[in-house]
Write a structure and sequence with these properties.
alpha/beta, six-stranded parallel beta sheet, 13 helices, 14% strand
């Protein structure tokens, strides 16, 4: 089976969640004995991607891959002809959108890996009202087209699958749940240049409003006043989501721009990862923390309900008083055994992902 894979995420943002899953798909396809894989991407003229992938004649800067004009040019002008010339039988896009625009050749099948639908359901951080309106319209059109064109839709959680059916009822029969792969950390732990606090809680990912960091920060501040043993708070991703005065709060440590090895070290040293998001399509940091043996506490109401061990603490993403009480309880809790946490994370290992992936490939034959 000749498979084409949209490799733009791995080209432009390989360390993002979508970029990592893009690379995981590439490795899984290459490991499948009955698949001949070809990559399709864009990039600057001197970029190494042009040596391993089908690319258009024009150049695209790496920071422009996600922009609408470049996407439309790739998906409408380049991709249809390139897929026909390469005699692709199955084409896979994994950036929530990105399937070719135009007539689909007879016999070709399209697969869409749909991570979440928060571009359509939640107010996102676009910097201005005008940008939000433009992105909202173009995202709805782009995602809607790919959902309609896809022969199969791979969702990383039942939550995302259900949201897809809610917004696109006609797609129900196409949807399959295939959880993301979480490899743990290939890089050994590396200490940061600035020492971490002796006792701290951790939040990973702070930029989007749905991460709910200001709400969590308010609860943590109250808990610090009420419960003396409440640990410091480390934010991975920066503190721009907070007010300027809040960023100077004693006990708050904002960190960004660290390596995988340094992130591994932070996970290992944390007393607990908190994930207060009111919207997650999968919950990568939760599984990463568990793979490092670090306990977690998560907000209810999204895919976090699925990826978190059943006995882990949970809280409402809107009930401040209840979260403060939970922080008080957990500030003096005994350390948890790491073995059961790592065993749970194995549900999302490479081996588990490949088993489900191979089932999905067999369905495409």
């Amino acid at each position: 089976m000749r498979v084409g894979l949209d490799y733009r995420p791995a080209t432009g943002f390989p360390n993002s969640g979508i970029g990592r899953q893009n690379i995981a798909l590439e490795e899984a396809f290459r490991a499948h004995s009955d698949v001949q894989l070809q990559l399709f991407s864009v990039g600057p003229y001197d970029h190494a991607i042009r040596r391993i992938a089908h690319c258009p004649a024009w150049a695209t800067p790496l920071n422009g891959i996600h922009r609408l004009p470049e996407r439309l040019r790739f998906e409408a002008q380049f991709l249809p002809g390139a897929l026909r010339e390469a005699e692709i039988e199955v084409y896979v896009a994994n950036m929530n959108m990105g399937l070719p625009i135009g007539h689909k050749p007879t016999g070709m099948r399209y697969v869409l890996q749909l991570h979440d639908l928060f571009q359509l359901t939640i107010k996102n951080n676009h910097g201005s009202t005008l940008k939000a309106m433009i992105y909202g319209l173009t995202d709805r059109l782009s995602i809607g087209h790919s959902v309609r064109a896809a022969d199969r839709i791979w969702a990383p959680s039942q939550f995302t699958a259900d949201e897809t059916v809610r917004l696109f009822p006609h797609a129900r029969s196409k949807i399959r749940v295939m959880p993301h792969v979480v490899e743990g950390f290939r890089a050994a732990p590396v200490e940061l240049d600035t020492p971490l606090p002796e006792r701290f809680w951790l939040c990973v990912g702070t930029r989007e409003p749905r991460k709910n960091i200001p709400f969590f920060f308010d609860a943590w501040q109250i808990a610090r006043r009420q419960f003396p043993r409440t640990p410091d708070l480390v934010l991975i991703g920066g503190s721009d989501c907070l007010q300027p005065a809040q960023r100077e709060t004693p006990g708050l440590h904002a960190i960004s721009g660290i390596s995988d090895g340094q992130l591994h070290h932070v996970y290992q040293q944390a007393l607990r990862l908190w994930q207060p998001s009111y919207g997650e399509g999968f919950g990568l940091p939760v599984v990463e923390a568990l793979s490092a043996g670090t306990p977690v506490a998560v907000a209810t109401g999204s895919s976090l309900d699925e990826v978190t061990p059943h006995d882990s603490p949970r809280f409402s993403p809107t009930d401040l008083a209840a979260l403060v009480r939970l922080m008080g309880v957990l500030s003096t809790a005994e350390p948890e055994h790491c073995a059961p946490l790592k065993a749970w994370a194995d549900n999302y290992s490479v081996a588990a992902f490949r088993r489900r992936f191979n089932e999905m490939v067999e369905e495409l034959r």
